[in-house]
Every structure is written in structure tokens, then in C-alpha cells.
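Session log. Operator J.P. requested a structure for one protein chain; no other inputs attached. Running the standard single-chain path with C-alpha cell output.
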Amino acid sequence: MSTHAPLVPPGAAYYPVQNAGDTRSYAFLLVPGFTLLAFSSAVEPLRIANQLSQKPLYRWRVLSEGGRPVASSSGITVAADEALGPLDRETDLMVCAGNIPSAAAAPAVVATVQRHHRFGGTVGGICTGAFALAHAGVLEDRRFTLHWENQPGFLEDFPRLVPTSNRFESAGRTLTCGGGAASTDMMLSLIARDHGADFAAMVSDMCLRTVLAGAAPEQRSSLAALMRSRSPALIAVVKLMNEHLEDTLSLEALSEAAGCSRRHVERLFKATVGETPNGFYRGLRLDRGRNLLSTTDMTLLEVATACGFNSVSHFSKCFKARFGTVPTRFSHRSRSAGRMARA
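Structure written below.
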């Protein structure tokens, strides 16, 4: 295991930190297709903390299988400092993954996570890094999260492990976040734990974060904001639709649960989203199907069933109408792209 001197860059802004204590260490394990935004959003708050305090509060390094450079989802390659190997127990190991969750399940990656956690180290998953933690068996009975786009596929692989919708989770010796800007939120929470909320707020200001960490815990905007609607009935119906994509509910059942008549719900949908409730509901189910085809190895029949369709032929017809291609071609294209990215 190589050691790296902490980087303390010069800067104009300054915030004194008293009783800084020992330098905390992070190791970022990059897997093919990792998201550059999520990775840099985790590293930069550490750099800013050192810069603001002019003290070596944090040290970080980059790991990869074989110590090789790793291509991100944007095609930009990042060099690794070293290959996978035993880490000091005080080092927090963060698995950075992306659009190819299976990359985080590589045997060497999973073994590294298992070993570090078994010997008392903290392990984390950034974006879809939770796949590595799940395969390593460290998420049982713990709160965790991953990017919302990949949660349906994750649940198909690990039906007993249910992620939260929060931007990040800290549960003992496991840390997880949805990636993107949520990486910054998670790191700000750790900086606040180490050096206080006031210092973390200054780091947040340097990141130009206009929302305080923890003020907006969920990954996605509320349904009200998404649909630009303040109708409680409409929001309640759409929430129920999302909760019943496989075991679909009739429009009568949805309306009754929302405390409205069927005709009132139909008028709300036409006025607000420009389509019928059934058409909107079908779109949600097809979007889930597209997600499952992209992120899992489920058969077409399994995907159709998971989206509430009684037959593959009906699912395929509706899928083509929405996405302009049949699901068999879409599935083949997505998996081919995944194999190319892993190569």
C-alpha cells in the first residue's frame, strides 16, 4: 500500500479549523463506466476543506483493478494511483460506479469491499456502487441508497434489499449516495461530523451549493414540482400509479383512493398533463420496462410481467409505440453497449 502526502492547495478564502486531529483517508475505487460527476463531486469537497483550512484534514487516492486507468461514462479516462489491495482500517473505501452496475459486481471489487469491511473498515457506494456492497453482503438491515434510475433493476437483483429515495445514507460503517450532486451532500455531512457545521457550510459555499445539506433529502423533485401542479388528488393518483406498476389498479380504484370521481380525475389529467389517466399510467409502466431492459438480464416475459402487462405481444406493441423500436432490439442494443463499455 502506497502512501500519499495530503494535498493542501493555496487559495484566497480561509477558514480556521482548531484541533484538526489526524488526517482522514479516503480510497476511491473506480470501475469501468463510473460517472465522472459523482466521483469529482465526492473528491472536491475534501480538496476544498484542505484549501480553506490550510491544513491536511483529508487525504485521498484512486484505486482500480490492476492499477490501470479507468474510462468514465463520458469517455474521459482517469489514472489510478495503485491497484486493489489491503487498506488501513482507518481508510474509508468508496466504490464509484455508473451506468453499468454489473461493473461494480466484479469479483475483485466485491472481494476488496468484503475484506475491508470484515477487518473493521468503512465502505461506501457512489452512484451504483451499492451493487458492490450488496454483492459483498454488507447492506443487510442497513439503510442505503443508489441512483434512482437504477433502483428498479437493483430490486430485481436484490428483492430483500430496499434502497431509500434519499440522496445519501450513513449507516454505521456503510455510506451510500445516489451520485451526481448527492456525492457532495454526503461528503459535506462527513466534513460537518469531523469539523463542525459552520466549516461544512463554508465548504458548501465554495461549492456554490445554494441548498443546505440535508434540506432536500430526496433524490427527485416531488411529483407536484414535476407536474407543476398543486392538486393533492392528482399527486395522490400518480403516487399510487408508481407504487402499483406490476399489480396495476383500475381507474375506479385510483379515483376512490384519491377521494374523487373518475370523471374528475380524467379532467385533472387532461388539463394538467395533456393525456388520459390510463395513457399516463401506461407510460409509467413502459418507462419502467425500458429501465429494466437497460439494467437487468430479465427476459422479455419477466419484464412485461413486472410492468403489469398480460402478454409479451401487448407489451411489445405498446413499447414500440412509445419508443419507436421493439423491446428485443432495444434490449440487444443496450446489452451490446454494456459489453463494449466493460471491454
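Operator note: Confidence is low (pLDDT under 50) at residues 335-343.
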